[in-house]
Amino acid sequence: MLQLLLSPLVWSLGASATLHHMFVGTYGGSGVYAVTYDDTTRALTSTKSNTTREDNEWLALSYDGKTLYSSGLAGWSSFPITSPTTIGASTGSSPSPGQCAIWQGIFILASRRAPYSVYGTLSCARSKDVGAPAGQVGRGKGEVVYNETAVMYGMDMDPSNQYLYTSDFKSGKIWTHKVNKDGSLTALASVEGPSPVGAPRTVVVHPSGKSLYVVLEGWNVLALYAINATTHLPEYMDALFNLVPPTETPANYAAHSAVVSTKGSVLWATTSSKVGGKPGFITGFRLQEDGQIIDQIFQVNTPTGGGKSNNLAASPFADNMVALTESERGSVSLWRYDNVNVKQIASVQIHDAGAPNKGCCSEAVWLD
Ligand SMILES: *[C@@H]1O[C@H](CO)[C@@H](O)[C@H](O)[C@H]1NC(C)=O
Ligand SMILES: *[C@@H]1O[C@H](CO)[C@@H](O)[C@H](O)[C@H]1NC(C)=O
Ligand SMILES: *[C@@H]1O[C@H](CO)[C@@H](O)[C@H](O)[C@H]1NC(C)=O
């Protein structure tokens, strides 16, 4: 009996390393990197896949982990995931409609609910339904017009994937759409942000579905909203949280990214630095079960200024572990909060372009 009880433990101690995989996007190049983490040696390694696209800035995974979607200047594309470290030739792409002078495919989001639609934002006040259940972009059902003066940026869905929240970077608003059974969107309303000039970008819904966080790039703060259970609209809680220390000059930074840890207990957020040679920050907040913020638990420098990214991706296999991508030098690092300290535990350099914000590393998505 004792032998039986012990054997799984012995087996797990003797087992070989577990490998975890992510894909990492790039700026202004054709590459997508597969990054592997060996949780025994704590080594991160990378391999490159080429795509025919010019840019693979934001990435998303399909619900079944079989398709990688990317967005960037040229619109949106899909690629089959042929192994945990390789992608195949593009299965489709959806060029932007052409009328967006500034930025075409800003962001991409893949729904986890049938029919598994994919949504992309544009700088010209539209969100484009760019996806199809088969995992190919380019068969979208059309565009959703928000407001002619808007610049739609970040998106997230509630845990049931029935409501879509989108930030308007230009006017400071947060839009709520009902996601219909066929994947189409119906606008419910937009709510004002804390300020029309706060420049909201990343939007994150807490796994409880009760709180929503908005990263205000222009103010270097995070704004807290409660999601009304009846209307599903976010209500601003009059609560802002600093993403740079009070001793720093906010104008030297740009708030970028936020993610919630696997178990929903910690919120991580970053700023990148606009001043050469100065690092950005990574800040952590302790959360209640409903996602309300209890307090700030850490605020430390990131390895570089972060460039255009300093973006976070929460690990699906370990609570309180995140991947941080930065494009100043080009690297991916893993960070862990152990309830006392936050530490970088692994890092891989991917200096592919030799110039800041060209090439690696824009955003990471974890496969497993
Ligand atoms: C990617 O493209 C570069 C430059 O064209 C080439 O040197 C490299 O071998 C390609 N890599 C793969 C994995 O196809
Ligand atoms: C779009 O938003 C702007 C600024 O908030 C507002 O002035 C304008 O009336 C809106 N347009 C429409 C069609 O709602
Ligand atoms: C949610 O919205 C409804 C309808 O506007 C309102 O009656 C209710 O008080 C709101 N709930 C909360 C908790 O604010």
UniProtKB/TrEMBL annotation:
Return the Gene3D superfamilies for the record: YVTN repeat-like/Quinoprotein amine dehydrogenase
Question: A GO molecular function for this record?
Answer: 6-phosphogluconolactonase activity
Q: Which residues form the signal peptide?
A: 1-17
Similarity-based family: Belongs to the cycloisomerase 2 family.
Q: Report the protein name in the record.
A: 3-carboxy-cis,cis-mucoante lactonizing enzyme
What InterPro entries does this protein's entry cite? Cycloisomerase_2 (IPR050282), Lactonase_7-beta_prop (IPR019405), WD40/YVTN_repeat-like_dom_sf (IPR015943)
What are the entry keywords?
Signal
Q: Which organism is it from?
A: Microthyrium microscopicum
Q: Name one Pfam family in it.
A: Lactonase
